[in-house]
Design a protein that fits this description.
Keywords: Signal. InterPro entries: DUF5780 (IPR043939). A hairpin with a 4-residue loop joins β9 (167-177) and β10 (182-184). This protein has one domain (3-220). Helices cover 9% and strands 34% of the residues. The chain has 222 residues and is mainly β. It is globular and about 50 Å long. It has helices at 50-57, 188-195, 202-206, and strands at residues 3-4, 12-15, 34-40, 61-70, 77-85, 91-101, 124-129, 137-144, 167-177, 182-184, 211-214. The chain is built from three helices and eleven strands.
Length: 222
């Protein structure tokens, strides 16, 4: 596994005043948890419409931020994901897709599971996350990336070169709630068609987060 989870000790103020989009880690060791989060528009210029803000405040959405970081102890690169549950139900599991791009916005084929020598390079990685996230809480996770220059002694992957990932796009395919309800993202296939294996303008990659995904639950229909 190449996933590392870290506890969030402070209240997370999620910046939710950007446009709503259809969507917008396994580690060497696992720790994890979630924390209560608040939504706030005060810290960011409000560019969203009233309907978009209402979707968040009324509790029928999830949001996330993903950024490239380095582990303090080793300097190895990883993707840090903060995911917040703005629904009134507990999330029991999620299935989401990850895509990676270099600094020029070109798509990258990665060996996503760096401890699995049989894992083949691919543009996408579909991951099943079984962390429980209660209403109003945020879960933090990290996905370790390969860097041949920093991971000395590690089995060579590809040409053994440095990490080329500069940006990553994540999107939920489905969300399972603790009461058994399963929500499937109706925009997932369009998202995958638009981004998988395709070059993306750097400005679009820079502005992809925070992403907000509106979720329609059975008791909210109609």
């Amino acid at each position: 596994m190449n996933r590392k989870r870290v506890m969030t000790a402070a209240v997370i103020f999620v910046l939710l005043c950007v446009g709503v989009i259809s969507c917008a880690p396994e580690a060497l060791g696992v720790t994890g948890g979630s924390s209560v989060a608040e939504t706030s528009c005060a810290a960011n210029p409000c560019e969203s419409t009233g309907n978009q803000k209402q979707a968040v405040v009324s509790g029928n959405s999830v949001s996330r931020r993903v950024e490239l970081r380095e582990y303090e102890d080793s300097g190895w690169p990883y993707l840090y994901d903060t995911y917040t549950n703005h629904t009134d139900k507990t999330i029991s599991s999620r299935q989401y897709c990850m895509l990676a791009y270099d600094k020029e916005g070109q798509p990258l084929k990665l060996q996503w599971y760096i401890m699995d020598s049989s894992d083949k390079p691919a543009y996408d990685c579909l991951y099943d996350d079984h962390d429980e996230i209660i209403p109003g809480a945020a879960a933090d996770s990290g996905w370790t990336l390969y860097d041949g220059e920093k991971m000395t002694g590690w089995p060579k992957i590809g040409d053994g070169g440095p990490n080329r990932v500069a940006y990553a796009l994540y999107c939920d395919r489905k969300i399972v709630f603790s009461d058994g309800e399963v929500w499937e993202n109706p925009g997932y296939e369009d998202w995958l068609e638009k981004y998988k294996g395709k070059s993306v303008p750097v400005e679009e990659l820079k502005n992809y987060y925070p992403s907000i995904l509106a979720v329609t639950l059975q008791d909210q229909d109609g």
